[in-house]
Amino acid sequence: MGGGARPEKARSEDEEGGQEVEEFSRTLSVVRRAERGPASGRHSDWGGLRGGDEPSEIHPETAVPGRVCSQGGSGHGCMFLLQKTHQFVYCPDTGWAVGAEESDFEGWAFPFPGVMLIEDFVTREEEAEMVRLMDRDPWKLSQSGRRKQDYGPKVNFRKQKLKTAGFRGLPSFSREVVRRMGLYPGLEGFRPVEQCNLDYCPERGSAIDPHLDDAWLWGERLVSLSLLSPTVLSMCREVPGSLLLCSAPEAAPEALAGSVIAPSRSVLCQEVEVAVSVPRRSLLVLSGAARHQWKHAVHREHIEGRRVCATFRELSAEFCPGGRQQELGRELLQIALSFQGRPV
Asked: 86-95+113-243+271-336 domain in CATH 2.60.120.590?
């Protein structure tokens, strides 16, 4: 044979597989260090609960390949996140989650209780005035490309402690919004004690990771007013087990009363993501299973223009009459509903 360069020995599949496992293990190690946060004790973008904001929850032990960056874009700082395999779409007319078109589960569905959507809750003029008044006060940089304004007590959720210092109530422009909420079935008696405004912008790569809101201080209903642009709320559950599916109903739930719908398919719960369409100027209410069992998120690809979301939270039973901290709850409500607040 000629005197050409000696070819390198081809790597075996075992060697290649071993390198992939080693590389993936290194990635998970980086993720776990990031979750713990810097040694200085400051919260990283992936961890730490702060009053009025939500935690990022990352589960590297269930991750599969799919590069997603913590601040948008690509390159360094990317990590592996769980990719949901099966997409379902929430249908407000039936209250069911229906398999997406051209998917493996098109035509199949399961009940998805705890979501209430009220479209055109405010007018265009009211929307413009609310955002104008919000923009008069400073916005603070938050996690994952968001900005925020908090109107509520300062809370340490880990230690379950709160301070009322500096809290002067919800903003004056929310008085009419809160009054109007109480006119709708399902929102009777809703008295918010906290308002958190979040400002999303595609140029900042704004998003919010899957999370469950705190249940020690915040009560049964989470109420969000979506302004300036529509979005999609993506909901998932990180629990074992399967969801039983039926043929997608064409009628509203009351029309199905008394009928028997036999499940005939199932899908792993961890592989499902339910998309809830949130129109501009709509009010979204999460309660029950949608509040306590299904994590909610907003993905970057669903922020197409500036979006401002005002989320209102009520008190949990512990802070209501008869609860262990009812006196503190009474004080918080008195402050909140004075509507004299500025961002804290």
From this structure: yes
